[in-house]
Protein 1
Amino acid sequence: LITDYVSVNLGEDPVIVGLLDKGVNNEHALLKPFLPDSRRASVVDGVGVGHEGSHGTGMAGLIEYGDLSHYQTGRAPLEINHALASIKLVSDVYDNKPSLYGLLTKKAINISDSMGVKIICMAVTENEEINNGTPTSWSATIDNALYNCGACDHLMLISAGNTDVNTIDEQNYIDSLALSSIQSPAQALNAIAVGAYTEFSICKRKGWTAIAPPQGMSPMTRTSVLWKGKNSKPDIVMEGGNAAHHKILGNADSADMSPISSNHEIPQRPLQPFNMTSAATALAARLAARVKTANPNLSMLSVRALIVHSATWTEPMKNL
């Protein structure tokens, strides 16, 4: 059991990661110790705090534990010191217009702040292909909220957005990613934009082969190549899983080359494969929480600096 490897030690004033998503199933045994009902909220008109679908619960699992597949091999015990807050930003019940996302995100940041949140994680982006890095009302609102009159007392991690693996040329997938522009609001300068790379390289499904090499860019991430130097994003990359190619069936993301996280369907399916830049962003939020927990006196700007400037290039990235 995963819980056999985990001890919870939140202390009196734990670091809290605020997840802006579609809600989290906090009845999941792996998440219940970290997310009480009092730290669930919603900024969607008329829609409650309950979870919708699997995305938010999958994000929450990676924020707390990282890739759960690591615990299948008898990994050393883990002590978890950071907690969660969940603010529903989007909903399938009430579809807000993208023009309102900035206002809703600012409201969500304010609510999370009242819960003690200083690290904010959001893997929600605008589904728009035409983006040259110019600020949008959404990204500008986030920049302003994070600046906070010079206080700069919050850290926000935003996903770069996902590339449709069906559109990728598996022989030259990096060229395909160059044409897949990072989505709004990840151009926000004051936020950390998170892309995806992968350590997974072995696909166990017969007839399928991995597209990316180990430590290469994930085939599902986006880039800022089309921004032509306006802004270098993403700021960091984290594990986002690999995709596979079949000579007849084409491309697909692969469960056996993806991180494993918690799932909202309990007790039937408590775990799920969880990948793409959503997974990478959740893992980056976990990293930020662990840095802040280990160094409680650090400002959020210093936490950001440690994360970004300690990142290194992998050999496959150097060879691009």
Note: The chain has seven helices and 15 strands.
Protein 2
Amino acid sequence: TTKIGSGPGKQNQIEDAWRNQIPIEGTIVKEMKGGFEIRIGGSVRAFCPFSQTGIRREENQTDFIGRSLSFRIIEYGEDGRNIVLSRRAILDEERRGKKRELQTTLHEGMKVKGTVTSIQKFGAFVDIGGVEGLLPVSEIAWSRTEKVGDILSLGQAVEVIIKKLDWDQDRYSFSLKDALPDPWERIVDEYPVGSYHNGTVARLAPFGAFVTMKEGVDGLVHISKLGAGRRINHPREVLKEGQAVEVQVEAVDRANRKLSLVLAEI
């Protein structure tokens, strides 16, 4: 990146940077309609549209005022009186360079460090150092995730497993839960058939009640086992969500991650 001097030849330096597409240093001085005013060499005014700043939606634009950054001149008109800059062009080039490097080192199944860059209802986006991919809500934890923001926060450092790398389509997906111990690994030893345990009713469905035994392990009490001999139409007639219950393990299916339960006799 070229730092434009404050002497009389700076306009020629700026024009030369435009003709040769050399990045220059500019300071963001204020926000204006549609973008930022940038100063080059201390006094030359330029404009950078919001769409060319490379600032993420969740970043505060006013935090960038006063910062010196690298820009590429994308328009140079009226003998330097109309200069339009782009920071995104430089960021895109850097990202492409990092992507080329990562293609030689990354592979599916690898554990990598990343940073949460965006939180959505359907999951979170994670940057692993030049490649940004999706961490779907179903891959965040072994337990059921209701709200992504309750588990992850913007800027949080995470270790994820690479699930999919599609370099051609620029689509990458990760898993956080696969980087954590599998709570079902020793399920047969921890919950043998016939054993009694305390749990909490997690949610009710028309066919039965899901009971959380520990984080990442839910069992099902089928509706046919809830009426104490009488027929019921919905589990809510007997249980409510959040209720503490004692259950007995009826069957364990490690392969399909299923735990069949019955309410302990009172």
Note: The chain has a mean pLDDT of 88.
Protein 3
Amino acid sequence: MPTYQNRKCQISKAGVQYIDYKNLQLLSKYISKYGRIVPRYYSGATLQNQKKIAQAIKRARHMALVPFVK
């Protein structure tokens, strides 16, 4: 069973200030193979960044850039 306790936030590490809904390469890392948003304990994102990621994914879904279900 893998452990995710020492995982660091990759977004904070890279210094990303704004998570854009058009950046599909970044968003695809936080979407599971079933099209769901990956939870914090898998992604290792901070709470603030996880909320930004979720909002960006939801915006991308409404703009039809990311499917709701795969």
Note: The chain has a mean pLDDT of 90.
